[in-house]
Amino acid sequence: MNDNKISRRDFVKGVATGVCAGAFASMGLYSYTQSAYDRLPKVQRKFEDFGACRSVKVINISETSWFNNAHLIGDIHDAGGLLVNQYTLNWAPFANGQGKAKGSYDSGLASIKDLIPNDLEKAWEIQKKLALHPENPGGFSCLIEVEELDGTKHKYLLDTGWSYDWMEKSFKREGIDKMLQAREIEALFISHEHWDHFWGLPVTMKYDNRIPLYVHDGFYKEGLQYIKDSGYKGTPVIQKEPMRQIIPGMAVLKFDVPIINRVFGETSLAFNVKDKGLVLISGCCHQGILQMADFAYTDLKYDNDRFYGIYGGLHISPFEDWDPKYDDLVISLAKWNFERIGCNHCTGHLTAKKFIERGYPVVRGTARFRSSSPDYLGNGDTITF
Description:
By secondary structure, the chain is of the alpha/beta class. The protein contains 13 helices and 15 strands. It has two domains: 48-66 and 138-214 and 235-384, 4-Layer Sandwich (Metallo-beta-lactamase, Chain A), CATH 3.60.15; 67-136, no CATH class. The strands form three sheets. The chain has a seven-stranded mixed β-sheet. A six-stranded mixed β-sheet has the order 8-9-10-11-13-14, covered by helices on one side. The chain is globular. It starts with 7 loop residues before the first helix and ends with a strand.
């Protein structure tokens, strides 16, 4: 055979290779079809009825938990990694000025304990002198307005941010300070014990130190002590059961999951919007969006037996990195056929772009108040279900 002609054996080998490659590609595509899902074992659904509401509106107070990924990741890495206790990182408000990995709850808070919650400006100025990267903290917090079927309206806070200074300004920007003072906000739900969702608690306590407060039963002793040290005068509701109904059509879902920097457990919120379906709202969704969706599908009863919307951090690419395995999460989200997706925070900008590229119904934002991308709902933006 001439060099420029293919042998019979090479031809057969090439055809075989192509057939195999095509088969693998077909199997990959098949994995995401409804036929593939239909082959999975059928779960026994509980259809637990938690009522229905008319609508849910979310006002994003702040989704910007920190402003510099490199500083955040670098501090954690230098302290010993993702398993290090968050209270030892020497971040405000638990900084003692002794450097990386030498902080502690008691030594850090001692410098400002007498100032919180009434003089937070002075407290934060003191901590800025002691902390690593004191300008980096921001926070996650949103206001949720729920309308019952009879027209009664309720307001709730999900999380309370991190930086006293940033959250004070964010609260004032959205009028949260006045709502708290007027006792218009009926409860505060802390999704989990992480710095960016919980450490700003004194800002809420400054305006209402008796607001009903709900936390996961995985909070460590430092977290429970911080609730007291922040000036809280009530008794927190510590959720132990998988689901707790708050009002008709609204429930708190509890997930037991280990989280980085020695945090355990997260709670998310579920709503059944009449004639529309299920809405899920999360702080970070460390339990994973698929686990949260699977739990809701298995345990809850909701209108039309369909998923309607989702909001919050979905914890896919929080540090704006990308791993091919994340593509599986993006593709798998299609299974639930959400009608409205309001993502931000630890979802990551890259993930939001992937959602948009796949044609998912992402509600975009305005990139105001230091939110850096219009591809998702930024600070001051709203979404209604």
